[in-house]
Amino acid sequence: MKGLLADAYPDVWVAGEVQRLRSAARGQLYFELVEKGRGDSVKAKLDCVLWADERQAVEAAFREAGVELVEGVVLRCCGKPDFWPGGGRFQFTVGQVDPVFSLGALEQRRRETLRALEAEGLLERNKRLALGPVPLNIGLVTSEGSAAHADFLDTLVNSGLGFRVYLVHSAVQGMAAEAEVGRAFQLLGAFVRGGERLDAVALIRGGGSRADLATFDSRHVARAVARSPVPVVCGVGHQIDQSIADVVAHTSCKTPTEAAEFLVARVERAASQVEEARRRLASPGRMLLQARVSAYREVERGLVRAAERALTVAGASVDHVGATIAVVRAGDRLRSIVERLPGPSRRSLAVRMGECRRLEARVHPAAERMLRRALERMEAHRRLCDQLSPERTLARGFSLTRKADGRLVRSIADVNVGTELRTSVHGGTIGSSVYALTEQPRQRDLLDEKDRT
Predict the structure, then answer these.
(1) Strands (DSSP E) along 325-379, which ranges?
(2) CATH architecture designation of domain 2-119
(3) Helices 332-340, 343-387: crossing angle, 10 deg rounding
(4) Contact of 201 with 263, CB cutoff 8 Å
(5) Is 200 left (phi over 0), alpha (psi -120 to 50) or beta?
(6) Strands 428-433, 420-425: pairing kind
(7) What is the location of CATH 3.40.50.2300 in the chain?
(8) Would you state the CATH architecture of domain 126-269?
(9) CA 452, CA 22: separation in Å to the nearest integer?
(10) Which of 228, 203, 230 is closest to 132 using CA atoms?
(11) In this predicted model, what pLDDT tens digit does every residue of 230-261 receive, in sequence order?
């Protein structure tokens, strides 16, 4: 059998999707080439081996083409069918590969995925969701402890705003990443449907090769993003290409830090607009109060003038009225004077007072309504400002550290040994002095080192 296969098939080209990739102790690489049918069902598979000597040349060719030999990549390779009599096993021995074919297959799969998403109505679904002006409650899907995770949270914390982050850990690379990202979106969706508030979901990871980012080109992840009940901000570490997750997300950013900066800028813009609205409302509110006071004073002056004229007429026709009559402005005392006037004078004054009352009846309700609406708007803005206030942020466990001159301490480079510090926490301020400086290695460096090992 072994000789027959060698004579009949000296060199054969085959193509399929790489699955079950595993490296052996002596350097050889074992994997399966799979042909898929409708619905990603497996129609056929072929066991393959790439020996250590050929493996180095193949991986070098892939690196030069910008492709990585990982599970899910479509591979076209040339080799020989072989039979191992001792184990009764048939396998294909790979001699060389065509990385250009793999690049084309990746692009073809990407286009097929985009067409399928468009047919399902998912390309624009998440973009049509409204992102609120103050997105402070954020769901976060990423690998916990990664550099992307640290950069995103550092940006939110340094803003001084009251963000609340709900982290759902997920692998963002490798065999489990596709399923874990989808499961993370399911959990956050159930969280929202259960009545909890989420303003947005951030899907982030650091940079990498095109193969590293293959998870974000998968149809399963794209569907999870598109069907999210709240807007998705995608911050995948790419500089040139957009992943399919970027295409279907509400907002696409180039890095995790940029995604966090987008959210911070949106909240700061809303806070600025609220402050400006408060300034605009303050002046009209005072004007309304002044107008109301002026209207009442004008009514009061009209009543006084009418009373004076009526009393003058009454004094000329009644001999026993004294030379001087005290004139009062309004209220019960004015009405008591009116009741003592002769009939014609009393009727004249009553007509004038009726006119004044009708004027007051028109002015007073309108002024009340305008003032009430202004006060309601001011109260709504006050509540929003309370939510964004630094005191609320400190009460949640955050703190702000400043130097003696009031400048904010943002990094270790801002202080020296002996620098006097003032730390604001909930309930007061703590004074301290720097006695030692210890610079921590960046988490991104640690993550890169882990990937290399």
Answers:
(1) none
(2) Beta Barrel (2.40)
(3) 170
(4) no
(5) beta
(6) antiparallel
(7) 126-269
(8) 3-Layer(aba) Sandwich (3.40)
(9) 17
(10) 230
(11) 999 999 876 556 789 999 999 999 899 999 99
